[in-house]
Amino acid sequence: MKKILATLLAAILVLGCFSLASADTKTYKVGVSIYQYTDNFMTLYRNEIEAYFKSLETDEVKYEITMADGKNDMAEQTNQIRNFITQGMDVIILNLVQTSSADAVIDEIVAAGIPLVLINREPLAYDADGNTLDEQYEGILNNPQVCYVGADARQSGTYQGEMIAALDNKGDINGDGKVSYIMIEGDPENIDAQYRTEFSVKALTDAGIEVECLDDQVGNWDQTKGQELCANALSKYGDKVEVVFCNNDGMALGAQTAIEAAGRKVGEDIYLVGVDALPEAIDLIKEGNMTGTVLNDHIGQSHAAVDVAVQLLNGEEIQNYYWVNYVKVDKAYAEANY
Ligand code: BGC
Predict the structure, then answer these.
(1) 299 — phi, psi (to 5°)?
(2) Ligand 1 mean position, distance from CA 308 (Å)
(3) pLDDT digits (tens, 9 = 90+) for 78-108
(4) Topology given in CATH for the domain delimited by 154-295
C-alpha cells in the first residue's frame, strides 16, 4: 500500500513539474518560405536557418518552424503566405519568388500584424513606369516591422572582375589587348543577377582593361543551363573565349563541365569565376579548375535573419536593412581558409 502511495505521489509530482515546465515554455510559430528548394545556395541557407533557430532554443523558448517551397511560382508562394497568416505565424521569413510582387505580399502580412524578414532577393524602389530605381524600397522603409537581410550584389560583381584583373595577363590570354568574355546570368528579374553582370565587367574597365562581350545569356541560376550555355558558346567562339563570368557557382559548376568537355583547361587557356563559394566550387578552385568565386555568406545572412526575427518576436525595435559582406575567394584564400 505504502509503495502504491509513493508511486502515486511520485507520478503527481512528475506531472506537476511537467505542467509547470510546459506552462513556462513559450513556443513561437515561424513561417519560412523559400523561392525554390532545388536552388543550391538557398538549400545551404534554409538548412542553416533551421539549425540556428534550434541552437537558440532553451527550456523557456521553442521555435516551431514551418518551411515551404515556393517552387519558383509566385501564385504558389502567395498561397503559402496566406496559409501562414491563417495559421497565425508569429513571424515570417520570406525569400520572394518575384520581387515585383513585394508590395502585395508585404501589405497582406503587415495588415495581419505579422512581422516580416525578407531575405536574399531585395525588392527595389521603382518609378511610376515600373522601372527599378537605385534606391531603397518604401515598402520596407515605411514599415517598422519589416526588414531586408542580404548582401550588396555590386560588391560580388566587383570582386569577380577584380580577380580577373589581378591575373598576370589580366585575363587577356591571347594578348590581343582585350578580354573576350561570355556572361552567364541568373534570373534577370533578380537584382543580384543584374548587378553581378554589370559590376564584374565594370571592375575590368575601371582598371583600364578593354573588354569584348562575345555572348550574354540567361541561365536562371541553374547548373544544367549553365553547362548548356557555356558548351554552346565554346563551340561557337572557340579559343576566342578567355573568361567565363557566371552570376553564381551553380552555373559555374555546369560551365566547368562544359570547359573540360571542350578540351579546355582553366588557368591555362580560359578563366572561370562564380559567386557563392559552394563547397564544390571551393574544391574546383583548390584543384585549379576554377579561377575564383565570391563567398555569399549564407551563415552570416541566415544568422542575421534569425537574430532579427527573434528581436521582432521580443517586440524590440529593428533596423530596416541588414547587410552582410561578400568575401573574395581566389586559390590562395581557398587554400588558407577551407
Ligand atoms: C545566389 C544564387 C541564388 C540566388 C537565389 C543569389 O544570391 O548567388 O546562387 O540562386 O541568390 O535568389
Answers:
(1) -70, -50
(2) 21
(3) 999 999 999 999 999 999 999 989 999 999 9
(4) Rossmann fold (3.40.50)
